[in-house]
């Protein structure tokens, strides 16, 4: 029951989808959770749900593209809960665009949320992670491992997030800190609709996704949360520097 009792998890993107499911999972196992996103009302709902189940949670409204807000997130987490054992970087965005259609602004925005945010959060949290021999789990994507046309900046941001994971893992291994990534296939969340898909397009995308994932279905946020939890737990104590697919086999397939 209490595998994370006394531990502190800082989770970004906790207002929705994979980050929200991860927050609920960690809290249910005894962790105190600091929850980061921009939408205060969505975070408040997650905090309420966790507290109703007897857990401990604090909402920290912040935008991961703003360095001063990331510094505040780390400061408030440590002030509230006394330290940081686990950092989960789940905040992310997606947008369509090819080499011919991606504007510099769209490119920068993707990199700011999906790559620069995790970089600076890891950097600011690292002294505390070293103190407690903690660990980081970055939420990457199958698009970090394989190339897909039409979501250029997203693919590049996730490939870079994977390499950030691997490099930092080597840099802090001798300090007892582990750094890993999960690489989901299509998971039912708000990501694609927030990225511009209509309800009809999203329904068609999910239907088509049954054929692009060998296990014949898309994923649930709770399934990804289970893997994040495992990688963050002592059971994964000898795992660092990995990008771990959780994608119904998609990363093993060829395009079709
Ligand atoms: P959701 O859209 O459901 O959740 C995204 C989360 O990121 C929200 O909590 C959102 O909160 C937060 N967020 C976005 N921008 C910012 C920002 N600038 N500052 C702070 N928080 C921000 O999508 P998912 O749960 O699917 O996405 C979680 C992660 O999983 C992402 O990194 C995504 O790339 C990755 N992923 C998702 C897949 C999928 O098919 N769903 C597949 C592979 C990877 P708010 O809007 O309140 O700020």
Structural topology:
Blueprint: E1 8-12, H1 17-28, E2 32-37, H2 40-52, E3 56-61, H3 67-81, E4 86-89, H4 104-131, E5 135-139, H5 142-145, H6 152-172, E6 178-184, H7 191-194, H8 199-212, H9 221-232, E7 243-246
Parallel strand pairs: 1-2, 1-4, 2-3, 4-5, 5-6, 6-7
This protein binds NADPH dihydro-nicotinamide-adenine-dinucleotide phosphate.
NADPH dihydro-nicotinamide-adenine-dinucleotide phosphate binds at residues 12-13, 15-19, 37-39, 42, 63-65, 90-94, 113, 139, 141, 184, 186-187, 189-191, 194.
Summarize this structure briefly.
The protein has 256 residues and is α/β, with parallel strands linked by helices.
Detailed description of the structure:
By secondary structure, the protein is α/β, with parallel strands linked by helices. The chain has a single domain, classed as Rossmann fold (3-Layer(aba) Sandwich), CATH 3.40.50.720. It has nine helices and seven strands, in the order βαβαβαβαβααβαααβ. It has helices at 17-28, 40-52, 67-81, 104-131, 142-145, 152-172, 191-194, 199-212, 221-232; strands at residues 8-12, 32-37, 56-61, 86-89, 135-139, 178-184, 243-246. It has a seven-stranded parallel β-sheet, with helices on both faces. Helix 1 (17-28) links the parallel strand 1 (8-12) and strand 2 (32-37). Helix 1 (17-28) crosses helix 9 (221-232), helix 3 packs parallel to helix 4 (104-131) and helix 4 runs parallel beside helix 6. It is globular. The model has no long low-confidence stretch (mean pLDDT 97). The protein binds NADPH dihydro-nicotinamide-adenine-dinucleotide phosphate.
């Amino acid at each position: 029951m209490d595998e994370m009792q006394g531990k502190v998890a800082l989770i970004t993107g906790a207002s929705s989808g994979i980050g929200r499911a991860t927050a609920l999972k960690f809290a249910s196992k005894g962790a105190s959770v600091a929850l980061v996103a921009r939408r205060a009302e969505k975070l408040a709902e997650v905090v309420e749900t966790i507290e109703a189940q007897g857990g401990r949670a604090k909402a920290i409204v912040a935008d991961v593209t703003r360095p001063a807000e990331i510094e505040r997130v780390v400061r408030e987490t440590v002030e509230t809960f006394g330290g940081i054992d686990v950092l989960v970087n789940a905040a992310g965005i997606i947008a369509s665009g090819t080499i011919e259609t991606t504007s510099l602004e769209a490119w920068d925005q993707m990199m700011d949320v999906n790559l620069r945010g995790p970089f600076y959060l890891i950097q600011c949290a690292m002294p505390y992670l070293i103190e407690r021999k903690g660990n980081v789990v970055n939420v990457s994507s199958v698009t970090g491992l394989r190339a897909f046309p039409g979501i250029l900046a997203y693919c590049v941001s996730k490939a870079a997030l994977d390499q950030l994971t691997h490099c930092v893992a080597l840099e802090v291994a001798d300090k007892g800190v582990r750094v890993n990534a999960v690489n989901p296939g299509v998971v039912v969340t708000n990501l694609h609709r927030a990225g511009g898909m209509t309800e009809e397009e999203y329904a068609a995308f999910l239907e088509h996704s049954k054929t692009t994932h060998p296990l014949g279905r898309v994923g649930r946020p709770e399934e990804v949360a289970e893997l994040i939890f495992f990688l963050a737990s002592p059971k994964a104590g000898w795992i660092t520097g990995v990008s771990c697919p959780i994608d119904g086999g998609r990363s093993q397939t060829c395009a079709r």
